[in-house]
């Protein structure tokens, strides 16, 4: 499955693909919205092209665990391993690239990173469930455009 990077791991700027797909918009510092981790993105963040989260009105969000460094706009191949479901419907697929194939599911993610992901992405909205790999893949399949 393909993913496009909007905010690389370690970045402190909120970026979003323009609706016409001609580039990215800088929406300011992450810490203005999420002060967790000093507003620094804990994982690579992006979207799944060719999908639509109807509740958000945008492509499905994806969190990527990797040892690589990515750039804004870079397209990469990933494998979904989990799905974070939020009370506002802005759900997040969690995926790995080839550098993290040993992580097969949520339970395989190191505890410190799991806590950081939950605190960061659950800061503004309540996490209602963390689903397994199959639910994550089904979520992506059922939301393809």
Measure the end-to-end span. 14 Å
Order of strands in the sheet with most strands: 6-1-4-5-8-7-9
Mean pLDDT: 96
Number of strands: 9
Discrete helix count: 2
Would you mind describing this structure in some detail?
This protein has 145 residues and is mainly beta. It has helices at residues 111-121, 133-142; strands at 2-7, 13-17, 24-29, 44-53, 58-65, 75-77, 79-86, 92-96, 127-131. The chain has a single domain (2-142), classed as Inorganic Pyrophosphatase (Alpha-Beta Complex). β7 and β8 form a beta hairpin.
Task: Give a brief outline of the structure.
With 145 residues, the chain is mainly beta.
Keywords for this entry:
single chain, mainly beta, 145 residues, two-stranded antiparallel sheet, 2 helices, Inorganic Pyrophosphatase
Helices and strands in order:
Blueprint: E1 2-7, E2 13-17, E3 24-29, E4 44-53, E5 58-65, E6 75-77, E7 79-86, E8 92-96, H1 111-121, E9 127-131, H2 133-142
Parallel strand pairs: 5-8
Antiparallel strand pairs: 1-4, 1-6, 2-3, 4-5, 7-8, 7-9
């Amino acid at each position: 499955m393909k993913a496009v990077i909007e905010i690389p791991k370690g970045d402190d700027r909120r970026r979003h693909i323009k609706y016409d797909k001609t580039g990215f918009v800088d929406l300011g510092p992450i810490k203005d919205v999420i002060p967790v981790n000093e507003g620094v993105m804990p994982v690579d963040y992006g979207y799944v092209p060719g999908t639509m989260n109807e509740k958000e009105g945008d492509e499905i969000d994806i969190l990527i665990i990797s040892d690589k460094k990515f750039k804004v706009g870079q397209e990469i191949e990933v494998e979904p391993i989990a799905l974070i479901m939020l009370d506002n419907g802005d759900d997040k697929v969690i995926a790995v690239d080839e550098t993290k194939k040993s992580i097969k599911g949520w339970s395989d993610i190191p505890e410190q990173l799991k806590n950081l992901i939950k605190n960061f992405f659950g800061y503004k909205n309540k996490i209602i469930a963390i689903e397994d790999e199959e639910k994550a893949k089904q979520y992506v399949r059922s939301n393809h455009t």
